[in-house]
């Protein structure tokens, strides 16, 4: 079932003699398949095919594209247990998490399909003609969103389904009308090929042009760099490390034609616990915090890397609850040897600094199994140690005990851009809240109330994004239906007769979509 | 009234001994004011002040910001005839054009003010809570657009009002909630200071924070480069030459934190005249074309630099009408000596190539007065001469006589990104139209029907933008109300109690704005 080849549109291709293997994420044993590293020729073929496909696909109706997305979901489900088993081998993620992630992935595809069928997402703006306006008549002006062109998408290591081959970037790019050339992650190439096969089956079943999707394998930077550098690639989507994301951005910046490359990189997702919340709910917050830090062995983009609270007698009670909650937890197998050793190095670096440990899980004897650590420090020390702001990808988090709520503000204002800021507050804390929310909206893409940042809803209003370095472009979200606008641009039709307008812009509004007509949203037709 | 100093918030500043002067655009005589070139310290002061102002201004209500924009319009009008006189001296633009441009500029400010008062522009998206959803409840998620931060804006030479100090970039940035640090154009520093004075007066009259607007003078690249490189600048807007725009982009790309810099650069705005339209309306189209080419002495971004038509006996009739229309026109004074000499060089370069002249205006004896030129060539020759695709800024345009309509398609597909594509068609041409529009939407930001591209309406649906190199970011427009989204980003409030939400997101919808609630646009409140 897994061939180790690249998938260039509808055909398999393995031109290179150079191959790589993936490893069993639990045992570190090398798996048997040899994956053919995409050659420059294969990269080019995939992009040329995507370019040709774009000229057809961009004109497909919303219903047709929706059928494709829905069918991808069906084909992924049809892979059944064998898909889950393959991912467990390649990532060590547990079965329950993976069935959940599969549901999220197919749900995401279906959500974009429903968005396409409903049709209003094209953000139609119409200024009706004013032939008698003085001193000059106004032409009829009608705007809608159109797709940018072929998109390069990169797999994330931490979500082998939801942020990988058929994940959010692919779903939103295909929904926008853009073919996708996908760079698989070298730590889960097998599941990548399986899901790519599902997409190709769906494409064939729903009459999609050859090249609507291609999968490139590789364990070297060249593949991704050449993909983003290609003149026929018009946008990129990436979720991963700061260094990986910045390298892609730099490649994009060296192109003649600038293109948007959306990289979602690092974030430590501060959690603020205000005094009264700490006093009333120390146990509940401690347990929620520890669960959030340890969720998925800490390998979530929204993992809370610091918790800020102003020191008081309640702090010690809270720390006691944190210790108890930690004691109930055990370490987990990380996604790959590479991630595990990065984590170990990160933890060692913190140990070598003056950070104190609140609780460290016992050293696991098994390879790739991380020991979770919760640290503590004073606000002043945190401010003096810029290195502590750096994300340690894994189950590590610092509790910062500040001298006052004002010091919490100072620390938040010293941080770089984040995906989220979380606030725990009770009624007596409320006078602090307005200022905290103001700081939060400057700092982050999402402000969370009395909950934890892990768990990102896929919906219309979600923002999974935020100021640099959380992402390269704070104007975008990579989760939720608004993610589609990363891959579109507006175009305006001036005085074009109805017969030549796309249906979305025609007077009769044949698709019955919402349109912004002369300054109001309406589904009405235009007289 | 004109001091030659920089304007740093509410105070004038001229720290440098280095100055420059502007010249009378007709006579090339040096004008008397010495303008103080902004020092690095002054640039920094302006940006720091803007940063501080941002923390206040970002929370101002739409009504308050609207009052500021409306007042800027009033203060510009109050400058009266002296403003027009100053611009005529610095740009040689005629009075009628300038009173029109002033009306456009104040109209633009008032349009953004009305957008702010209406309030729906914040693009609110609400997913209501589903506390009983299985397997997990859904939190309340509420998204709106917030401002990015201080914006660097650059004056365009060709619109001393509408694309300069209080032009579209400034109006949309201020409307978005972003302070503006403005780099004046060295060819019209006097009018820049006058308009900046109007903005400062309006800011003071409407209680704006100091630093909401600053004006920097200079005739060296350093000022603009340092402005865009500053870490507290969060976006940039520029209209001008390809080289100027690309230099700013490169500076932005060398920053640690990437920021969006919107540069609107070069475009030759192809006009296609299909056979039947040419046959029926040769005179009308010829006259419209010549007027559009010569409008503002050809110094418009949307100036039609090429006209494409398939050769037939009607072509000669059309060319005859072009000659007649040209014969009635005279050359005009260009905006500056620099632009005039660029134009002369561009024309000379075309003369040295194998282009034929349809009509050239008689060589003017006056300095800076351009002789308009219409050229002709075959489609095959055009395809062989990539240099002919380059914009010659001024009243120059090439008529390309193709061997067939298919060759028109081929030529369009060989072009780089454009602001506009224009189609002239009559009923018998209609079978060509669908394909042309498809090509047009890939090529350009706006497709115009049986009219000419000059004249850009300021409205909701306008797109003044397009694929590279027409702009650096095809996802944006620099004209119309959608220009505001260049300077905003989304933020999501998760489960935040109503009392702490901005009014736009509160259950009762106290501002009665349009909101996208659970997948429908509504002004209703949320239960």
Features:
homodimer, 527 residues, alpha/beta, seven-stranded mixed β-sheet, 15 helices, 23 strands, 38% helix, 18% strand
Short description:
The structure is a homodimer of 527-residue chains. With 527 residues, chain A is an alpha/beta fold. Chain A is 38% helix and 18% strand.
What assembly state would you assign to the polypeptide chains in this entry? homodimer
Major sheet characteristics of chain A: 7 strands, mixed
**Structural class from helices and strands of chain A?**
alpha/beta
**Distance between the ends of chain A:** 57 Å
Strand content of chain A: 15-25%
The radius of gyration computed from the alpha-carbon positions of chain A, rounded to a whole number of angstroms, is 25 Å
The average pLDDT value of chain A, as a whole number, equals 96
Instruction: Kindly report the greatest chain-chain contact and the residue count on each side.
Output: A-B, 69 and 69 residues
The stretches of 5 or more residues of chain A where confidence is low (pLDDT under 50) are: none
- Per DSSP, the total helix count of chain A is 15
Strand order of the largest sheet of chain A: 15-17-18-13-12-19-20
Helix fraction of chain A? 25-40%
E-strand count of chain A: 23
General form of chain A? globular
